[in-house]
Amino acid sequence: MANPNHSSRRRATAHRPNRANETTSTRAKLVWVSFLAAMTVVGGMLMLIDGRPVPRIDGLSLSPLAATGWQRGPSSDPIRITRRELDHARWQAIVIHHSGSTVGSPASIEAENQSRNLKGLGHHFIIGNGNGMDDGQVHVGYRWMDQLPGAHAAGPNGDAYNLHAVSICLVGDGNRRPFTAMQLQQLSTLVENLQREFSIPADRVVLHSDIANVNDPGRLFPVEQIRTSTALSASN
User: Fold this and answer.
1) pLDDT, tens digit, 9 for 90 and up, residues 71-128
2) b/e burial code for range 215-231 (CB count within 10 A of at least 16 → b)
């Protein structure tokens, strides 16, 4: 005859939770929570670098039509599109660059800047040539919007130009193809307005090749044409 006490013990054992499984499950949850917490901390640290996430290309691109109508008011004037007040004490010069590629956009130029260990887009303004951006489209970079130093100039005085010069980059390769008429028109207007706003003299409007041993913005850049319309420095 079966012992009723043994039967009761078997039923109790059958319904008793597996403590080993509970312990394993609890540990797994703790590991997962710890992992999520660590990832959150890392994400937060990345967000705190320079006060913003990296890489960064946020900015505003104006259509060619809007960019050619700057006289209509601040909303269409790239110089006025900022998140901070214009820093009149900082901006003392202008440096003109090319992207070095016949096709380009803020994203592709930022990626090239990142490959050189720069944090985000190094230029303040980019002017498109119809390949990657609309012809004459002006991109206002985050560095200009936040009135931050650039990361664009080489040469013995590169640091000073990065701190105090506005960088304008033309999409294109000035050693292979001429820049478009719309690009040059937008460049002239932008340089003139910057000179007027920040009292930048002609001898401080330079090509990158004027201050560093580089062929930028290239041999096909129309120096005489731009000098006539913007009083570009004759230092080259």
Assistant:
1) 545 557 899 999 999 999 999 999 999 999 999 999 999 988 887 777 789 999 999 9
2) bbbbeebebeebeebbb
